[in-house]
Each structure stands twice: as C-alpha cells, then as structure tokens.
Amino acid sequence: MSNILNIGKSALNAAQIGIATTGHNIANASTPGYTRQVIVQAASQAQNFGYGFVGQGTDITGINRVYNDTLAKQLLNTTSTSSASTAYYNSINEINGLLSDSNAGLSPVMTKFFSAVSAAAANPTDVATRQTVLSSANSLLNRFSAVNSRLDDIRQSLNTQVSASVNTINSYATQISQLNLVIDKAMSTTGNPPNDLMDQRDLLMSKLSEQVKTTVVKQSNGNYDVFIGNGMPLVVGDDTYPLYAQSSYTDPGRLEIAYGDKSTPKIIDSATLAGGTLGGILTFRNETLDTVQNQIGQLAITLASQFNDMQQKGYDLNGTAGVAMFNIPQPQTISSANNVDKSKMASATFVPGQSQQITSSDYTLKYTGGQYNIIRNSDKTVTSAATLPVTVDGIEFNVNTSTPVEGDEYMIRPTQGAASKITLAFDDVEKLALAERVDANGNVIAFKGAGDNTNGLRLAQLQDAASVRLLGSNANRSYAQAFALMVSAVGTKTNEMMVTSKADASALEGATSAMQSESGVNIDEEAANLLRYQQAYQAAGKMMQIASQLFDVLLQLGQ
C-alpha cells in the first residue's frame, strides 16, 4: 500500500513542480532575455517482485532552459552586424544632408564668388563690383568654416560615443564575469544549472554584441569566455580585460581604443574592432569623416592658393604688384607621444606654385632604418630620403634635428580643419589685382592702366580650370567638379549603408523571431500545460485518496 502512496506522491510532486515551472514561464513571458523552462522527468527505478518489475513512480531530474546554441550564436552575430551598419548609416546620413543641401552647401557660394570675380573683370575700375568680390570671398570662407565646424562637431560627438561605448562594454564585461562566478558556484554546489542567472548572462551578451562583435567560448563549468576583435579576451572566467578610450599618439583630440596593461595600455588598430555600435562609428570615422573633412580642406586650400598665385601675377587698381588675397595655414604637424625627445619637431610647408599637387591625404613622417620615410596614409605610398627637406605632393617636409632617433614619428595633416583657418588678407578693394603684370610666358610687363582686365579674366577662369588633385585619378578636376564628386561619393555610400542597414535589421528580426520561436514563452502553450498539470495533479490526488481508502479497508479487516 505504501508503494501506491509513494507513486501517487511522486506524481503529485511532479505535477506541482510542472505547475510552478509553467507559472514561472507565464510570469516572465515579457521579461527581456527570458528563456522558456521545462521540467525533465524520468521514471523511477522499478522494483522486481519476481513476477515482474513494478514501477515506483516518477522523478524530476532537472529544470532546463529551451535554448539553442546555434540560434543564439546567429542572434549575437546579426545583432552586432545590424548595430554597426545602423551606426554607420546614422552618422553618414548627417554628412550627406550637410553636403547635399543646395542652400547650405559649398557649390552656391563658390558659384557666387566667381560670378562676382567675372563681374569685376568686366568692369575693373568699378569700386562697387570690387567690393562684391571681397564680400563674396568672405561669404565663401564663412561657408567653408561653417561646414568644417559642423564636421568638427560630428567628430567630437564620435569621441563622446566612443567613450560611452567603451564604458558600456567594460560594464557588461564586469557583470558577465560576476555571473560566471555565481553560476560556476551554483553548478558545482548543486549540479543543476541556475537558469534565470544564465538568462541574465545571455541578455548581457546580447547587449554587449550591440556594442562590439563578440565570440563566446563555453567552458565545461558553464562559464563564458568572451573575445572581441582579433581574439582579444574580454572576459575569461571571473577575470576581465577592459578596453580604454585613449587619445591618439599623434592626435590628442582623437579618441582611440587601447587595450592591455592598465598602467600602459596600447592603442590597437580600430579596424580589428568590427561590428557593433563601436565598430560602426570607428569605421565611419576612418572611411568617411576623415576623408570628407580632408577633401573640404583640400578644396579650400587649393582654391585660395591658386587665387593667391594669380593675384600676384597682376597689378592692383593703383598699379602696384598684386598681393595674396587669402591667409593660408600651413600643414599641421604633431609629434608622436612615443617619441623620446619631445623637442624634436617636424615641419611641413606648402610649396608656392604647386597647389595642384596637394592631395587630401594625411602623411606619416617616420625615421626607420637610417632614413626618413614619408608615408601617404591614403594609399601607403612611401617616399624615402636619407636627409630632409624633401618635397612630396606639393609639401616640403623637414625636421628640426640632425640627430634623429630610430622610431621617431610625426603626423602631418595638410588639409584637415584648414577650411576654418583661411582668412582674407586684405579688405581694401583697390588691392584686387585685375590688371596684367605677368604675361602668359611669365614675363613681367608694365602697368597698362586701371581699365586692364586681363588678370581679372584669368582669375575668373580659375573656376573651370582643372585645379584639384583627386587621389586615385589621373586627371585633376575643377573646384565644382571636385565638390560634386565628393557629394556623389558620400551620397552613394549613404544609399549603400541605408540598404545595408535595412537588410541587416531584417536579418536581425528573422534571427530574433527564430530564437523566440524556439525559446520564447507561448502563452497559449503554457495555458495548455497548466491544464495538463492540473489534471495530472488531480489524478495523483485521486490515486492517493484510493490508496488511503484501501489502507482503511485493511485496518477494518484486521479488527
């Protein structure tokens, strides 16, 4: 009789645990990251009574998560990819709007400036038209400055995002390591997986993959070892290896990602941190923002330099040799923070008359192997020399020391930010040099009078001259063509990223749906389970009631 009672008791216990587990599922149906749980039952060891084995009821061997490793990995990957493309698209879309705006862009003010020059050339003695040239020039510089300032704002915003993303990644890594410790302890103590804690850890992994692409290696004790980039460990057991947002060695205003020893972390190549929001904004900065800002600066410097050169080939209204109209900043040079002797500085200057050779690239000047190497960063073209100065791409490179040290490195930025630094050199309308002083053969000639407009016509013709050097092209372009090509490239990339981000979002939605279909809570299914466990509970109770009644019968017979 006790056998029947025990069987009933085990059935009652199983049904009770089933109801509790189902209720837990229902209660957490909307909990982020929650994975449906099921009880695992097994028949108790049967007992041999000679005539055969009689069952002894049921045992609950565990409560498991309905979890698919393959789907989970797919979800992490698509989350990382979608976050990266979305971050890139949101950032480049802002630049695309800035450049393509017909009212706020550069094309209208460049056209207006050269129209004013043409009008002045048509009436060289008229003071009013000369004043319009200076006013238009000032408006052009203001627009260049405004566009560059907006790009600077975007750059600073990226620094803020990089710092925030690094902090978020480190926070998630710490929480995952702590959960590793608790989960390991729970499993080693009880032998059973703490499902809710594992759900919390998986949710943190999903959030981490939104920030950076991750690889998870599961250990036998249930721990997650988490790797990022090209295999850099972020979490190993309950240990973490944090990232750092650190100023670039050659650009203090640019935050890079550092990794390694806390006291001396090393900056890593941002290209290794693909995926996630962090990877997306770093790729955008490297591929688009740097390129566009450099091209804007190149356009401004080329235009101002060539206008200055032509100005100096003319006579002004009073027959005086023309002077430069624009003040042009020289290339920015920065010594690497790793250089031993901080007093050693590089210098870079634009070579007069070579403005058509200026590119939109940054340069690295490095002393290695007993020689100076000037590296054009855009395509890694190297120009080597035993001594300096050396002229490359219209720029003369030099250093202020005759005793270089192996590894000395300098960053040279000829054009980035230059669009905000060009100013008018004079505000006297009479200094506009519209009369010819140097003829087509380079000969200096006498002043022909204030009515001479030969040089003014040449100034106006600069608008259509092939003046701007484009990297990767064998032919130079006019200012308008160069700007249009830049706008077109940004627009094309923006459209590409829009399509990509939508496709990635769709893939993420599919992966999420597949994961939810496998592991999510289905309320209808759980309601059916409740009824099933309720019936099992009632049946087990009925069994125990019958066993009790039979036992009473035996007692009565004994009396």
Could you explain how this protein is built, in words?
The protein is built from nine helices and 23 strands. It is an alpha+beta fold and 559 residues long. The radius of gyration is 37 Å and the shape is elongated. The relative contact order is 0.15.
Could you list some keywords that capture this structure?
559 residues, alpha+beta, 5-stranded antiparallel β-sheet, 4-stranded antiparallel β-sheet, 9 helices, 49% helix
Strand order of the largest sheet: 14-21-16-17-18
Shape call: elongated
How many DSSP helices?
Answer: 9
Distance between the termini: 18 Å
Instruction: State the assembly state of the protein chains.
Output: single chain
Give me the secondary-structure topology.
Elements lengths: L1 H26 L9 E7 L3 E2 L4 E2 L3 E8 L3 H32 L6 H16 L4 H64 L4 H17 L2 E5 L5 E5 L3 E5 L2 E2 L2 E6 L2 E9 L6 E2 L8 H36 L2 E2 L10 E2 L4 E4 L10 E5 L12 E6 L2 E6 L4 E5 L4 E3 L2 E5 L9 E5 L9 E2 L10 E2 L17 H8 L17 H41 L3 H36 L1
Antiparallel strand pairs: 1-4, 2-3, 5-6, 6-7, 7-8, 9-10, 10-11, 12-23, 13-22, 14-21, 15-20, 16-17, 16-21, 17-18, 19-20
Protein name: Flagellar hook-associated protein 1
Subcellular location: Bacterial flagellum; Secreted
Keywords: Bacterial flagellum, Cell projection, Cilium, Flagellum, Secreted
